[in-house]
Amino acid sequence: MELQIINAKLTPLSDNEVRAIVEIEMHPAVREWLVDYIFEDFDKELEDYKRFFREVQGNDKVEVLVAKLGDKVVGFLALWVTEERGERVGSVGVSVHPDHWGKGVATKLVKESVELARALNVKKLIIETVEENVAMRRVAEKLGFKLECVREDKLFKNGSRHDEYVYSLRL
Ligand SMILES: CC(C)(COP(=O)(O)OP(=O)(O)OC[C@H]1O[C@@H](n2cnc3c(N)ncnc32)[C@H](O)[C@@H]1OP(=O)(O)O)[C@@H](O)C(=O)NCCC(=O)NCCS
């Protein structure tokens, strides 16, 4: 089955697809890496995500790409766009269902987000991740992102402080 990437602004998601996204985001193996994210209970998250996706077309601060294998959602990416010193900067966050890790899903999502960012006149893309997130760092590095800085002890994870790695790609 071929991996398909869908833009949630162009192809609105069904409630089941939104549910699949929340299931990925709340999966214990994924949550472990979403260091700064505070989760509510599943139903509350689901309602928040449904509202977010109902309103996403009118939101010019964010783009969402969804990875599907057949009719199954296996991952997604959010591209948040801000203005910094007169230029557009994008920040990328990506999550993939653990059943599909290591199959190139995040790589394909980030690759597509680079093209999307270019089309939106974004001049710089950023990926921030905890030092130990080797998979995310590998995805960033193999797509040409450069390590911009290390924010020492920035993140709190499993009871201790961890460095945050900041990667950037000039477009
Ligand atoms: C990080 C994440 C998005 C990667 O998704 P993925 O679809 O598995 O990524 P890909 O398959 O495209 O690429 C992963 C790469 O990392 C490599 N990798 C994975 N674990 C590794 C490890 N422990 N050591 C070395 N390399 C590793 C893979 O081999 C692959 O590189 P390759 O293509 O050169 O072989 C996924 O693990 C995830 O959802 N994690 C939880 C959420 C998260 O961390 N999000 C990012 C927050 S900034």
List keywords for this structure.
single chain; 171 residues; Aminopeptidase; 7-stranded mixed beta sheet; 5 helices; binds coenzyme A
Oligomer: single chain
Flag low-confidence runs.
none
**Biggest β-sheet strands, sense, barrel:** 7 strands, mixed
Our count of domains comes out at 1
Note down, in words, how this protein is organized:
The chain has a single domain (3-170), classed as Gcn5-related N-acetyltransferase (GNAT) (Aminopeptidase). It has a seven-stranded mixed β-sheet with strand order 1-2-3-4-5-7-6, with helices on both faces. The radius of gyration is 16 Å and the shape is globular. By secondary structure, it is an alpha+beta fold. Helix 1 (15-26) packs across helix 3 (42-55). It is 32% helix and 39% strand. Bound molecules: coenzyme A. Residues 30, 33-34, 93-96, 101-107, 129, 133-136, 138-139, 142 line the site of coenzyme A.
Task: Describe the SSE topology.
Elements: E1 3-7, H1 15-26, H2 28-31, H3 42-55, E2 62-69, E3 72-84, E4 87-96, H4 105-119, E5 124-130, H5 134-142, E6 146-157, E7 160-170
Parallel strand pairs: 4-5
Antiparallel strand pairs: 1-2, 2-3, 3-4, 5-7, 6-7
Helix pairs in contact: 1-3
